[in-house]
Amino acid sequence: xKRLMLLAAVCTGLLFSTTLxxxxxxxxxxxxxxxxxxxxxxxxxKVDEDGDLIVNAKxxxxxxxxxxxxxxxxxxxxxxxxxxxxxxxxxRLANQFNDRKRxxxxxxxxxxxxTASSCDYYLLYPGGLDRANFLTTIEWIDGLKPVxxxxxxxxxxxxx
Length: 160
Prior knowledge:
alpha+beta, about 40% helix, about 25% strand
């Protein structure tokens, strides 16, 4: 009996481990824990007090929230303040960037003339989530930070 219970526990563990390392997750299996397993192979990350993942990417931290009721993942990153640009210039640049450049949304803090900027992006997964697509999205978002910084420094959105 003990051997049967041990065998059942080992098989359950292997099955659960295989599910987490799968190349595609069913929509119901997309959780912060499953995504952390995918991320752990390439990035350092932790789960914060809200249950969101915080990824240590090359160009800074990227936050990830699993919105299971909407079958969506929200990615976000804070880009910081740029004191050499006025609040109005930053809003203009963010609007141009959002309109002409990317699917990502850059926003500027509305408070007291601050020039702090952040970005967010939503990835829908109603039919499930592909590992390669998820990890490529992380790389893409991480690569946008230097593009945004160059936009702020140049004062214009470049088409390249």
